[in-house]
């Protein structure tokens, strides 16, 4: 009777070993699932970035408002006849010493 128990337990362990530690084990499935979730998150970020770039390209092709905005913000350009005002924040002005 004792040898039968040992044989059955050994057989059960032999059958369970690949499930837990083999090539297609639960641990490997868990690792692959984690990698899949990380890859999906990366893909979602890239899809959002691509959509923003696509919208910007369409806007640049169709209208002049986006081109004008870029010229103002990145190049500091102004239209003919416009007056440019630059307001400085006195608390951020490093040329004046702070009163003590």
Automatic annotation (TrEMBL):
Name this protein carries in UniProt: Cell division protein FtsB
Keyword Lyase appears in the UniProt entry: no
Organism the protein comes from: Chromobacterium phragmitis
Keywords: Cell cycle, Cell division, Cell inner membrane, Cell membrane, Membrane, Transmembrane, Transmembrane helix
Cytoplasmic side: 1-3
Function of the protein: Essential cell division protein. May link together the upstream cell division proteins, which are predominantly cytoplasmic, with the downstream cell division proteins, which are predominantly periplasmic.
Similarity comment text for this entry: Belongs to the FtsB family.
Compartments where located: Cell inner membrane
Positions in coiled-coil regions: none
Subunit structure and binding partners: Part of a complex composed of FtsB, FtsL and FtsQ.
BP-aspect Gene Ontology terms: FtsZ-dependent cytokinesis
Residues in compartment: Periplasmic: 22-100
Matching InterPro entries: Cell_div_FtsB, FtsL/DivIC
Classification of source organism: Bacteria, Pseudomonadati, Pseudomonadota, Betaproteobacteria, Neisseriales
Record's bilayer topology term: Single-pass type II membrane protein
GO cellular component: cell division site; cell septum; plasma membrane
Gene it is expressed from: ftsB
């Amino acid at each position: 009777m004792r040898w039968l128990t040992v044989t059955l337990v050994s057989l059960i362990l032999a059958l369970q070993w690949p499930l837990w530690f083999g090539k297609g084990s639960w641990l490997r499935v868990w690792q692959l699932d984690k990698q899949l979730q990380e890859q999906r998150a990366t893909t979602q970020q890239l899809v959002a970035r691509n959509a923003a770039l696509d919208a910007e390209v369409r806007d640049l092709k169709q209208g002049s408002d986006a081109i004008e905005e870029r010229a103002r913000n990145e190049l500091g350009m102004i239209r003919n006849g416009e007056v440019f005002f630059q307001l400085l924040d006195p608390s951020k002005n490093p040329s004046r010493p702070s009163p003590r």
